[in-house]
ATP-binding protein
Amino acid sequence: MRCHKCDERAVIRMRQHRLALCRTHYIEWFVQQTQRMIEKYHMFTHEEKVLVAVSGGKDSLALWDVLWQLGYHAEGLYIHLGIDEGIQYSTESERLAREFAEQRGLVLHVINVAQVHGETVPEIARRTRRGRDKPCAVCGLIKRHDMNQAALDLGFNVLATAHNLDDEVAFLFGNVFHWNLEQMRRQSPVLPESPGFARKVKPFCRFSERETAAYSLVRGIAYIEDECPFAEGSKQLLYKDLLNRLEEVEPGAKLRFYLGFLEARDSGQLILPREEEIPLELHPCPRCGQPTTSPGLCAYCRLFESESLGTLGTPVQPK
C-alpha cells in the first residue's frame, strides 16, 4: 500500500476517506484537519489560552501535541484520581503526562484528589450508593467539576478535551436509544462559555480512535495503553463495539451518523428542546461557587459533606 501523495509506504489507510498516507503526510494531514475543525466550529484563536485535559492516554497527549505544533498557548491539566489498585493506573498516567510536558517544555498542572479531599476516587465511589453501582459516574462528576474550576482559577478562556469520533457516536447512540433529548441538545463540538462555566471544545470530534492512535504512534508519543479499570462493563464500550461492527461493513457510517446529527439539529430538521424551553434556575453553590440547580450544595460538594453521604447526599444505610 502506497501513500496517495507520494510513493512512500503508507502507514495508515482510512477507508472512510479513501485515503492512504505515509508517516510524513499523515502527520501533516492530521495537524491540518485539526486546524480546520478549530476554525470550522470557531473553537478558539491564537490569542486565547487553552487548558488541555490530559489523561496520559493517546487521545489527550496527541491533542496537546497538535496544539503545540500549531503554536497555540496550550497548557495541560492532569487529575490524579488515585485509581492505583492493581496496575498503578493513575500513577503511571501522571508519569507519562509529566514526561510528555518536560520533553516539549510545556506546563502541566496537576490536581491530586486524595491530597485535596483526603481520599481517592475509588474510596469516594465505594462509600456512595451511585458509585458502588457506577463508579464512572462519580469519577466523571469529580473530573468535570475540577476541570472547570481549574480553567476558571488559572485564567484560561478555553477547556479542550480529546473526545474522538468513537466517543461522540457512542454517546449519541446511547442518547438516541434512550431518547435523552436534553443531552442530544447539548452534544456539540463547542459548548459556549457562560457565567461560572469555561468554554468547552472538542477538536478531535471527527477523528476516529484508530486515527488518533496512529498519530500518537508515528509521532512516538508514549502513552498509557491500559483501559481505566472503572471502564469495565461500561455501556459506552458496548455501544462502541456495536458501532465498530457497523463500520466494518459500512466504512464511514460513524462519521455520517455524527455529522448528519449535527447538520439536522443545526438546520432545524431535528427539533430538540431549546435552552430557554427548559426551566433551569442556576445559582452559585454556597461552598465552591460553581453554578448548580440544587437549592443547596452542588452534587460535587455533597460528595464530601460527610463520609456517610450516598447518591447526591442521600445517606448510605449500613449493612
Remarks:
- The longest helix spans residues 135-153.
- The first strand starts at residue 12 and ends at 14.
- The beta strands are 12-14, 19-21, 49-53, 73-80, 108-112, 158-160, 190-191, 199-201, 283-284, 291-292.
